[in-house]
Amino acid sequence: MSFRPALRLAAALTILALPAAAAPCSNSGGQYEQWKPTFAQEARAAGVGQRGIEALMSSSYSTPTISADRNQKSFNYSLDRFMQVRGAPTIVSQGKARKSRNSAFYQSLEQAYGVPAGVLLAIHGMETGFGNFMGDSRVVSSILTLAYDCRRSSFFTPHAIAALQLVDRGVLSANSVGARHGEWGHTQFLPGNVVRYGVDGNGDGRVDLTNQTDALSSTANFLRQKGWRPGAGYQQGQPNFRVIQEWNAATVYQQAIAIMAAQIDG
């Protein structure tokens, strides 16, 4: 969930219990190297193993991540401007074509999770242009930078711990690439949400959100677990619009997804 804190997903994420003594945050990168050993103690206390700790210690402060976090202007646009900037007509056109080409796949997801194709395709198109650009930043360094940064440290720290746990499991590596805020894969999941909602959709024994089947299955699972009601509407004022709000906290984003999804679904 590209979030570009789009994925303010799960604002009340509680999947990981953190020890009381937290590593101190900072608003500049100058103390990042000194912060890493302190955060390593916190990570070990949360169950992170040696591979995860090594990924932490090899990480670097990400200036582009901080720059992106301070400049999220598109969420302040009007709905019309937001949809224009994000290329809504192209997303709808390509979404319809994708649905037509692979209708059985999207039908299987709706049968399993109750989420219609249009919603999944609108999110996929909005987040990464249907996988055409899934980011160019190192996930581990990006998410650790945000845990270190004081602005939203409490929100990103559980995701940073989750990222290190995913390294332990072999799901991520220190060099895995994603978006500027540590989101990963076709629909841009934050690490904590990979842990909680990730699905092995193609049955190969691992959750890989750079695989489209895994990513869309995981997205549908996220929405269902957040309360999606099969067959209910998803426009503003309808039951499932609240679930779209769980995916992204920006009202203009939520509105755009609902509109594009309805156009894709016809």
UniProtKB/TrEMBL annotation:
Residues 1-22 form the signal peptide. Its EC number is 4.2.2.-. InterPro entries: Lysozyme-like_dom_sf, MltB-like, SLT_2. GO terms for molecular function: peptidoglycan lytic transglycosylase activity. Keywords: Lyase, Signal. One of its GO terms (biological process) is peptidoglycan catabolic process. It holds the Pfam family SLT_2. Residues 32-235 form the Transglycosylase SLT domain. This is Membrane-bound lytic murein transglycosylase B. The lineage of its organism: Bacteria, Pseudomonadati, Pseudomonadota, Alphaproteobacteria, Rhodobacterales.
